[in-house]
């Protein structure tokens, strides 16, 4: 089974809230919340993919990001490699350009949302480091 390489942004605003997006129900892991991002194309670095995806999905202009975590996770139907970056240096308010629901949430509230299993280590690390 092919592994999908995904650039993921943990976007943190000045109020220390994190941007979440809800996956459309027809997608893999649909109906669950996620940290925005998308596939890294063959001709891109992770940073280039992250900048492109966050502009396309949530209309943010990313200036810099910091590598945070890398997760390889095997679902029964798909293998993913998540390259997670912290994004604090950006412009924009965040909006669902693909008609997905988005919201800014406190780190302490992350456990109230249903995420894909591969995202659980991200949440644990954020809660340990930010609370």
UniProtKB/TrEMBL annotation:
<keyword id="KW-0378">Hydrolase</keyword>
<keyword id="KW-0234">DNA repair</keyword>
<keyword id="KW-0515">Mutator protein</keyword>
<dbReference type="InterPro" id="IPR047127">
    <property type="entry name" value="MutT-like"/>
</dbReference>
<dbReference type="InterPro" id="IPR020084">
    <property type="entry name" value="NUDIX_hydrolase_CS"/>
</dbReference>
<dbReference type="InterPro" id="IPR020476">
    <property type="entry name" value="Nudix_hydrolase"/>
</dbReference>
<dbReference type="InterPro" id="IPR003561">
    <property type="entry name" value="Mutator_MutT"/>
</dbReference>
<protein>
    <recommendedName>
        <fullName>8-oxo-dGTP diphosphatase</fullName>
        <ecNumber>3.6.1.55</ecNumber>
    </recommendedName>
</protein>
<feature type="domain" description="Nudix hydrolase">
    <location>
        <begin position="1"/>
        <end position="128"/>
    </location>
</feature>
<keyword id="KW-0235">DNA replication</keyword>
<dbReference type="Pfam" id="PF14815">
    <property type="entry name" value="NUDIX_4"/>
</dbReference>
<keyword id="KW-0479">Metal-binding</keyword>
<keyword id="KW-0460">Magnesium</keyword>
<keyword id="KW-0227">DNA damage</keyword>
<dbReference type="InterPro" id="IPR000086">
    <property type="entry name" value="NUDIX_hydrolase_dom"/>
</dbReference>
<comment type="similarity">
    <text>Belongs to the Nudix hydrolase family.</text>
</comment>
<dbReference type="InterPro" id="IPR029119">
    <property type="entry name" value="MutY_C"/>
</dbReference>
<dbReference type="InterPro" id="IPR015797">
    <property type="entry name" value="NUDIX_hydrolase-like_dom_sf"/>
</dbReference>
